[in-house]
Write a structure and sequence with these properties.
Largest interface: A-B, 25 and 23 residues
Strand content of chain A: over 45%
Oligomer: heterodimer
Shape of chain A: globular
Number of strands of chain A: 11
Helix content of chain A: under 10%
Structural class of chain A: mainly beta
Number of helices of chain A: 0
Radius of gyration of chain B: 13 Å
Largest sheet of chain A: 6 strands, mixed
Structural class of chain B: mainly beta
Order of helices and strands of chain A: EEEEEEEEEEE
Order of helices and strands of chain B: EEEEEEEEEEE
């Protein structure tokens, strides 16, 4: 089955700086990679996703890049703000994609220092 | 639009007592349904998923069970709770057959077993 590794487990950056979270996956057939943000005590919410036919996707201050050859994908947050503080999860789903859904990384606790 | 309801939001139960958590989805038909558990400061552990009424797949052997009595209703149960059952329980849904479909989470139930 799929295995997703996520690094780092904790990331502290100064407000205004950029943050990068990296994930690797094991199944070369994986073709969909969403990122979730979970604020303390709340549910994970989808913030951005990328499909395997795309190398990069941006949405305002957030971007995701995908390297299929190396089997890794990354989340980039620019001009970080206090509200970006949360736990971020990457995930992957292989092709043909079972109903068992996504395989999640273990999460990255992003701390934005004022 | 689709919405997912999960209740109760918090629950404190003694060891050995039964458990019933309920989740319903509105605005979509025949969704895939999921139960996840999240221990404090940890990742997302898939417990059960369902692709249709009465169809339940278990990912982790434990004293929990799940049922899907109606198309958009998913129930998590236990006959006798253990201390280790404490955690944040999340229900989620995705599009049936949607191999590149994200998961949409409910607000979660925080269960404390005392």
């Amino acid at each position: 089955g799929e295995n997703v590794e996520q690094h780092p487990s904790t990331l502290s950056v100064q407000e205004g700086d950029s943050a990068v979270i990296k994930c690797t996956y094991s199944d070369s057939a994986s073709n969909y990679f969403p990122w979730y943000k979970q604020e303390l005590g709340k549910r994970p919410q989808l913030i951005i996703d990328i499909r395997s036919n795309v190398g990069e996707k941006k949405d305002q201050r957030i971007a995701v890049t995908l390297n299929k050859t190396a089997k890794h994908f990354s989340l980039h947050i620019t001009e970080t703000q206090p509200e970006d503080s949360a736990v971020y999860f990457c995930a992957a789903i292989p092709w043909p994609g079972g109903a068992d859904g996504l395989t999640f990384g273990k999460g990255t606790h992003l701390i934005i220092q004022p | 639009s689709q919405t997912i309801h999960q209740w109760p939001a918090t629950l404190v139960q003694p060891v050995g007592s039964p458990l019933s958590l309920e989740c319903t989805v509105e605005g979509t038909s025949n969704p895939n349904l999921y139960w996840y558990r999240q221990a404090a400061g940890r990742g997302l552990q898939l417990l059960f998923y369902s692709v249709g009424i009465g169809q339940i797949s278990s990912e982790v052997p434990q004293n929990l069970s799940a049922s899907r009595p109606q198309d958009r209703q998913f129930i998590l149960s236990s006959k006798k709770l253990l201390l280790s059952d404490s955690g944040f329980y999340l229900c989620a849904w995705s599009v049936h057959g949607g191999r590149r479909s994200p998961l949409h989470f409910g607000n979660g139930t925080r269960l404390t077993v005392t």
